[in-house]
Amino acid sequence: VGMIHEVRPIEKVVSIARQSRGERPMAVASGGQRKVVELTLGHLGLRDWFGAIVTAEDTTRGKPEPDVFLEAARRLAVAPSHCVVYEDTDLGIEAARRAGMRFVDIRKL
């Protein structure tokens, strides 16, 4: 948390989110702790872009289990099959698969 000022956005992902903002519901579904996720989004000026923020505290099973993504979809009232996950880890991609969601591996953008 003390290094939050050094966090930099992943510009390609922010660009996609910027284009989608107001056009479709968006959520952050992270295996991280809520305090860190909220601080990071606030630092980047992105907090109000998302209709839901789901973190490790909101589910009992972490990735690769699909729980965090399914909870985000539930909070947005969007069917999992209509969701697209932007993910940067193999565990997260597996979680998206298990949730029945399409995914983009941002490491390949």
Q: What does this molecule look like?
A:
- With 109 residues, this protein is an alpha/beta fold.
- The protein is 38% helix and 13% strand.
- The strands form 2 sheets. The protein has a two-stranded parallel ribbon with strand order 1-2. Strands 3-4 form a two-stranded parallel sheet.
- The model has no long low-confidence stretch (mean pLDDT 95).
Which key phrases capture this entry?
single chain, 109 residues, alpha/beta, two-stranded parallel ribbon, 4 strands, globular
> Kindly, what is the distance between the CA atoms of the first and last residues, rounded to a whole number of angstroms?
27 Å
- Main sheet: which strands, in order across? 1-2
According to DSSP, the number of beta strands is 4
Biggest β-sheet description: 2 strands, parallel
Total of DSSP H or I helical runs spanning 4+ residues: 4
- Series of H and E elements: HEHEHEHE
Mean residue pLDDT: 95
CA-atom Rg in angstroms: 13 Å
Helix content: 25-40%
β-strand percent reads 5-15%
Uncertain residue segments: none
The secondary structure category is alpha/beta
Shape: globular
Provide a compact summary of the structure.
The chain is α/β, with parallel strands linked by helices and 109 residues long.
Q: Which helices and strands occur, and which strands form pairs?
A:
Elements lengths: L10 H10 L6 E3 L4 H11 L7 E3 L12 H10 L7 E4 L2 H10 L2 E4 L4
Parallel strand pairs: 1-2, 3-4
